[in-house]
Amino acid sequence: MISASRRWFRRNRKTLAIGTGVIGVGYLAGQYVLGKISEARERMSSDRIARENLRRRFEQNQTDCTYTVLALLPTAAEDILEALPVEELTKELQKKRAERLARLNAGEGTATGSDMSSVAPSLLEDDRKSVSSESFLRTSQLGESTVEGDAPQPKRNKTQLWNEVKITSITRAFTLLYTLSLLTIFTRVQLNLLGRRNYLSSVISLATPADSSTIRLEDHDDDLTQTLGNDFETNRRYLAFSWWLLHRGWKQLVEEVQAAVVEAFGPLNPRDDITFDKLSELTLQVRKKIEGATEEDRKHRKWLPYLLPPREEEDHLLDESGVLGVTEPSTPQTAATLRHLLDETADLIDSPTFTRVQMLLNNECFETLIQQCKMDAFKSAGPVTAPQSFTSVATVVPIRENSELKTKLANVLAVLARQAHTIGNGTSPPNIYVSAMDQGVRELEAFAAVVYSSNFDSELLGAGSGTNSSNATAAVPGSASSSPVIVGRDDRRAEDSTTTTNTDDNDLEKAWGRAVVEQPSGGPTA
Asked: Phi/psi class of residue 50: alpha, beta or left (left: φ > 0; alpha: ψ in -120 to 50)?
């Protein structure tokens, strides 16, 4: 038996050796494949967790942007309401009317009810004639009466007061709309830039190997933290630049809006009838004057002077905003990081994408305002098909349903005066204009996603010295396969040694287009 087994093994030893080798190789190959599958699963799980973490941070960041806008809005609204005091003009008109009635009563003695009923129509007719017969107030006189509130005002007749009420109420409402839309998109840019840098800072901190010999309670690498902007002093200085729009930028807007309103609404009599189509058409004329009459003009509209100061006034802004009194002295690292943030912010504001989103925000704000005027002044709750919004060729489409809606212009002015307080409302009830922009302008969140997720690779490479950049890159979802969006510097800021990146405007445009198409939920691209 034993000899037979030996002979069998001797005859089949080659076959057995080959079989054993095949089985061994198969086992090793199987273990290798299983290891790779397990590794791929872990990598996919880590990438999924990173994506969810990025999406959660992004969504929380957008919520913070909305609350920040509501917190900052009353600062600008109070100044605008004070500079354009419609209520004071209305009180002065009421006072003049009361004085006139008193004079009539004193001249006629005790008047009966029938006498008073005959006096009231005559007063209205006299007012109508006086308004139509006298010339309207000039723009320069209006500017002196609204801006220089402390100066003694010359005595104005009823014609001038009515004209001031008309121009001031419309100017105030439109200025608040532009201020709100600019504050909304500017806050998105600021907080998403800081959110992106803080996210990358946390990623690199997690990817940096910890020193097992010591226990450290602070960040793993202070230099990397400062490089990526997770620096409280830098962030505070950067966020203080919203002061410019809240205290200076809106004043430039008032001048432009006032001139456009005088040109469009100046010839109208406050006591004449106005149709809904006419109101929408005049509103669009004002917008064309401010934003651009053609699509090409609107594409090149520059909003930067309203949002950021010239470089020589930046220190003055920090001083006026009170930041310098509560922060530590600026270090070279802080100054360099702040300069980088301001340069990138200026590039984003000057980009065509910013102008496009800003126009959409203005469309939503003005459409909401016209809707409120229609419901309150024209006594109609029907849908508005927005001839006051820009189309691709900036034309006005007349709506037959709205053509019969008619009311006194004075009624529209009263609605605009009340809506100014609603636009500047930063507390409860919820601001309907902020909600309309958040819910109606999908491109706003797409633009925020581009800002939040762009420049991941470039910032990681810039901070890669002293840490495992490959591990840090792996923690950023999609960063290994997607090309980075490099935002270029404009020529005015390119002289600084910290801003030597080449300009590439098309990258931002392409990334924005992908964000709009690929992200229905508004989250950042992976």
From this structure: alpha
Q: Among residues 162, 396, 178, 175, which one has the least CA distance to residue 278?
A: 396
Residue 319's alpha-carbon distances to 235, 241, 243, 307, in angstroms, are: 16, 11, 11, 17
Burial of 37 (0-12, 13-18, 19+ CB in 10 A): exposed
Report which secondary-structure segment, H or E, holds 409: helix 409-423
SS3 269: coil
Tell me the C-alpha distance between 205 and 379, whole Å: 60
pLDDT of residue 448: 92
**How far apart, in whole angstroms, are the C-alpha atoms of residue 304 and residue 307?**
5
Number of CB atoms found within 10 A of residue 317's CB: 20
Question: HEC string of 174-216?
Answer: HHHHHHHHHHHHHHHHHHHHHHHHHHHHHHHHHHCCCCCCCCC
Query: Is the Cβ–Cβ distance between 492 and 350 less than 8 Å?
Result: no
pLDDT tens for each residue of 225-284: 443 444 788 888 999 999 999 999 999 999 999 999 999 999 998 888 999 999 999 999
Cα angle for residues 275, 276, 281 (degrees, 5° grid): 100
User: Against a cut of 0.70, is the pTM above it?
Assistant: yes
- Give the model confidence (pLDDT) of 164-179 as tens digits: 899 999 999 999 999 9
447-461: string of b/e by CB count within 10 Å (b at 16+)? bbbbbbbbbbbebbe
- Helical H segments across 211-313, by residue range: 222-227, 232-239, 243-244, 250-265, 276-291, 295-299, 304-307
d(Cα 202, Cα 210) in Å, to the nearest integer? 14
Kind and range of the H or E run holding 408: strand 406-408
| Alpha-carbon radius of gyration of the chain | 33
Q: Which residue ranges in the chain fall short of pLDDT 50? A: 110-150, 212-230, 380-382, 384, 386, 392-403, 461, 464-470, 472-474, 479-504, 515-516, 518-526
Residue type, 188: R
**Torsions phi, psi for 148 (to 5 deg):** -90, 75
Nearest CA to 93 among 279, 270, 275, 274? 270
Among 197, 251, 250, smallest CA distance to 226 is for 197
SS3 92: helix
At 168 the pLDDT is 93
